[in-house]
Amino acid sequence: MPDAPCRTRLGGMSRLPALPRRAALVAPLLLARPAGAAPGPAGGWPALARDALAPIQAAMAAAEGPVLLKSFTTERREDFDRVHAEVAFTYDNALAALALLAGGERALASRIAEALRLVQEQDRHWRDGRLRNAYPAGRVFPEAPRSARPPGWWDAARGQWLEDGYQAGSAAGPMAFVILLWTALGDPPFRRAAERAADWLEGLSAPAGYRGGMIGHEPSPDPLPWVSTEQNLDLSIAFARLGRAEAAAHAAAFVRAMWQPAEGRFAMGLTPEGAVNRGSALDANLWPALAWPDRGLERALDWVLARHGLPSGAPPEEIEGLDFDDDRDGVWLEGTAQAALLLRRLGREAQALRFAATIARHRRPDGWIAAASVPWLTTGLGTGLQPGAADFLYPARGHLAANAWAVLAARDASPFG
After folding, report:
1. Which keywords describe this protein according to UniProt (predicted)?
2. What is the CATH number for 293?
């Protein structure tokens, strides 16, 4: 099936459709607060936790049984909306269930976890424990064997139903987050599903760490030969939860090897050719300090604040949010929430509250937090659809993962335990 624009997580990064770049907005203007305003959202952390969780709860209430939630709002008629009209990303849904669990909604979290178990069991082709990167949003029926498919859309110009190759594939990081969810719940069916997923993931082992997974459609998807710091961090925790000490150690050793002591931060991982990818990624630098506290890794947070913080040039104590990359053309709300959680864990409450206020200001009237503070947030990366072009953008659409990370930050709850 032909490929088309997609969103992916390569080493903790997300890929969006190749869309025309909109006129840039000045991010600091979007961040402005009234003079004298307190450095935090109205109502503090409890209000942010309640407000960020509310649309997730409402989406669950609108459905019955095992269900996967749509990842982005798609209210306009652009390519992004067409391609993402039914997309429920696996990572976003695992994260949303962890947020529900942190909010005391175990029954709702279990419904998402069961939907993920069913799509693993009912895949239209695979029987080896892998999960795809995305599925159609909505109810998953246990009585519908071999029915789980990737999401797709109708292309009227071609007269074809299309499915994206990334969404049909299986990346290591999203699967690791599903294992984190299943093991957090701990029910025997979820534990069995987690073991099956881990069996497949161990097959991605490389001399250093674990490779990225597979991309493309059955029966012969292509391997993702790069090795990601963020995804190996995810895997190290997931394997450890299952008592797979050797696999956990192999992944953890790779993460440690990516530490750049002179700069006090992590590299993104290895390129397909085996060279160190020295780019700067938020999750590769924030998540190890969340997962492994008291190891001196919090220095990486200061790297992120210095190179991704907005307004540009502001001292650390005045930063309002974080960009995905270092061009600082807008705020990436999901990453800002991740940093808020780490700031809280490190006792830097005032700065965490500033980030929380930014998150709250980008909560839309429908309750969903925007993925980005500007219409199309650049990342400096490419989708591969236009060789050599940095066409990988985040939209100012409501985003399930942004809400979920906001809940985790407000509840002071880490997905890594």
Report:
1. Signal
2. 1.50.10.10
